[in-house]
Design a protein that fits this description.
mainly beta, globular
Length: about 230
């Protein structure tokens, strides 16, 4: 169960701030963020070397896109496309609004169920695919949103119930000073269902963390995983 936290404040110095943990099978191969896709110039993200897509990426227009599995759908399935292509489809568009419009026509049955968050300085959306029928595109209002394996800000989810109030109480970061967000993202206390940073167990756990900031004409991407910390600034 991956986690994506979004603080959307249009009109501020940093209108888009995001934090994410990727939870995955530890043996699944991947590479840290870079421009891995010649067919998609300007997109930077981590590479899932098994299927060729990404779980989280940014583009030169100041947009971020992240895909998360919905409950009970970890891993690939026969006759289903890789969900890692969805952020690439979104980031090929110039704005989050344009991406939401393009994605609205997708057949959600082509993939296992997913949540796809797409955002830039002006707008944010959660695109939900349930594994059948058309996808659902839900605008996210300004403010704080937390997305895991269920709907945004779902307090019935133990992870959201524990951590959404903690992020809400934290002072908004002012990059490159992220304040308390890195410590919150690294929290490994609580039950396995509610901890934000999942310790390795049974070949599964949190494999990487990321912070993204979008401001006037610049996008910062901080990343920590199995290799040295990466930083990208457009």
């Amino acid at each position: 169960m991956c986690t994506f936290i979004l603080l959307h404040r249009p009109g501020t110095a940093w209108p888009l701030l995001a934090a994410a943990n990727r939870d995955e099978m530890l043996a699944r191969p991947w590479q840290p963020p870079a421009a891995h896709w010649p067919a998609h110039p300007g997109i930077i993200g981590g590479l899932d070397t098994l299927a060729g897509g990404t779980w989280l990426g940014v583009n030169g227009h100041g947009m971020v896109a992240a895909v998360l599995n919905r409950t009970g759908t970890l891993g690939p399935a026969a006759n289903k496309r890789s969900r890692g292509e969805l952020p690439l489809l979104a980031l090929a568009q110039p704005t989050a609004t344009a991406a939401a419009a393009a994605l609205a026509g997708l057949d959600g049955g082509a993939w296992r169920s997913f949540n796809l968050v797409v955002a830039d300085a002006a707008a944010a959306f959660c695109v939900r695919g349930t594994g059948m029928g058309a996808v659902d595109v839900q605008p996210l209002p300004p403010g704080l949103a937390m997305v895991t394996a269920s709907d945004p800000n779902d307090l019935a989810n133990p992870r959201v119930a524990r951590h959404l109030p903690r992020f809400a109480a934290a002072a908004p970061p002012a990059p490159p000073d992220w304040g308390s967000w890195p410590a919150l993202l690294a929290d490994s206390l609580g039950s396995r269902a509610e901890t934000l940073h999942v310790p390795p167990q049974g070949g599964f756990g949190t494999v990487s963390s990321a912070l993204v900031a979008v401001g006037a004409g610049q996008t910062g991407f901080w990343f920590a995983g199995k290799e040295a910390r990466k930083y990208v600034l457009f």
